[in-house]
Amino acid sequence: MANELKDMRESYEKGSLTKDTMHPxxxxxxxxxxxxxxxxxxLEANAFILSTASIDGVPSSRTVLLKEIDEGLVFYTNYKSxxxxxxxxxxxxSFLFLWKEMERQVRISGRIEMVSREQSEAYFxxxxxxxxxxxxASNQSSVINSRKVLEDxxxxxxxxxxxxxxxxxxxxxxxxxxxxxxxxxxxxxxSRLHDRIKYQKIEDDWVLSRLxx
Length: 213
Ligand SMILES: Cc1cc2nc3c(=O)[nH]c(=O)nc-3n(C[C@H](O)[C@H](O)[C@H](O)COP(=O)(O)O)c2cc1C
Prior knowledge:
Helices cover about 30% and strands about 35% of the residues. By secondary structure, it is an alpha+beta fold. The chain has a six-stranded antiparallel barrel. Helix 5 packs across helix 6.
């Protein structure tokens, strides 16, 4: 097994990056790559790894889905979850998108803010009914005795909110926005000499640099 892992390697040859050909606005560049990932039929191209840190510096990561791009990058979750507790105490985060099939990675970090109630409600209302009820049923990140707890909860909700009735947005559910100050676009290259272009926000300008792989 150990040998098999040691033998696992790919040569990356699908693209290249130069500072001159990158969009001067990183959010535009990111949107372009996301669109390319979608057109390459990458499954859940909007999935990313969200890393947070507790107030005492303990990191944790999990996958979430990017749902909106406005002045930042927005995802939705339960405001009582472990990730939300981290973000409320320490509003900094790192997002990592890996589009392996395209030999691309994007790393984004910055400050987190809560999305307005109106924006969260607008998104909640376009979710499928069962996902809406799921948000009510799950006390995300808390310990439960069995799966039955969830199923009973869902059953009760289906009775309380029959088809055709509006499901309100749970007060403990909503969005967070990452307002980025750093982006790094990574494109795999041959012989591990990958291309890395970093954007850093310095005052009102984005400054691009090439990083050694
Ligand atoms: C592909 C995928 C997409 C997910 N999308 C979300 C999401 O958008 N929001 C969310 O709260 N959790 C999402 N999850 C579940 C999280 O990874 C995580 O289990 C959950 O949010 C609890 O995390 P926490 O205890 O660190 O708060 C997703 C998981 C996967 C694998």
